[in-house]
Amino acid sequence: MHIRRLCVFCGSSAGTKPEYARAAADLGQTAAARGIELVYGGGRIGLMGALADGCLAAGGRIIGVIPEALATKELAHQGCTSLHVVASMHERKALMAELSDGFLALPGGLGTLEELFEVWTWGQLGFHKKPCGLLNTAGFYDRLLEFLGGAAEQQFLRPEHVAMLAVADDAETLLARLSEYSPPDVRKWLRQDET
Fold first, then answer.
1. Mean pLDDT rounded to a whole number for the chain
2. What are the CB-based long-range contacts (under 8 Å, 24+) for 168-173?
3. Using CA atoms, how far apart are residues 24 and 48, in angstroms rounded to an integer?
4. Structural domains counted in the chain
5. What is the SS3 assignment for 144?
6. Residue 112 class from Cβ within 10 Å (0-12 exposed, 13-18 middle, 19+ buried)?
7. Residue 98 banded pLDDT, cuts 50, 70, 90
8. Would you tell me how many other CB atoms lie within 10 Å of the CB of residue 59?
9. pLDDT digits (tens, 9 = 90+) for 1-26
10. Beta strand pairing call for 62-67 and 37-40
11. Residue pair 126/120 in contact by the 8 Å Cβ criterion
12. Structural domain for 93, as ranges
């Protein structure tokens, strides 16, 4: 699958480990080197800012999408190649999804998890055929991955649903896995779930 634009969900905090910001900047640089434009939440702080700065420093293009309430608090990154100011979080997520060929999450909090789980669910239901990935920097998502495995064991998730999420601990590997994504035929799952 050719990824021209990749949506990145990540924290507005830098977290406690310097590896997180380095990984965000590295993702921005790696995407720029591959000619992939990035779509993200439009912020200038935390991992969002590190991602944008890394991409721009490498000559890449980054598209920010930020709600007006956050932009007016001077949290918007003014160096974005393009910055869309929208009215609500719902509009933000819809536009980010519309602009993107795939999705990836860096470390982050509730917003990052909510955004990733929403687009992953959309893929599971067949609303899109775009890849979803998780950059597991410094083992940040180890416990989440363990939880997902447990949910599959308890039959709240199908193993095929878990397998839809590409996981790697470095940007180069994860971008390669996302580009190799082949959308599954979700119709068979939906028919089985109806019985």
1. 94
2. 168/133, 168/134, 168/135, 168/136, 169/135, 169/136, 169/137, 169/138, 169/139, 170/23, 170/26, 170/135, 171/23, 171/26, 171/27, 171/30, 171/31, 171/135, 172/30
3. 8
4. 1
5. helix
6. buried
7. very high
8. 9
9. 789 999 999 999 999 999 999 999 99
10. parallel
11. no
12. 5-194
3-state secondary structure of 7: strand
DSSP state of 180: T
pLDDT digits (tens, 9 = 90+) for 114-139: 999 999 999 999 999 999 999 999 99
What are the tens digits of pLDDT across the range 36-69?
999 999 999 999 999 999 999 999 999 999 999 9
Q: Hey, what are 2's tokens? A: 């050719």
The CATH number covering residue 15 comes to: 3.40.50.450
Residues 58 and 167: their CA atoms lie apart, in Å, by 24
The pTM for the full model equals 0.93
Structure tokens at 116: 């990733």
Q: 3-state DSSP call for residue 156?
A: coil
**For residue 39, what are its two tokens?**
């779509």
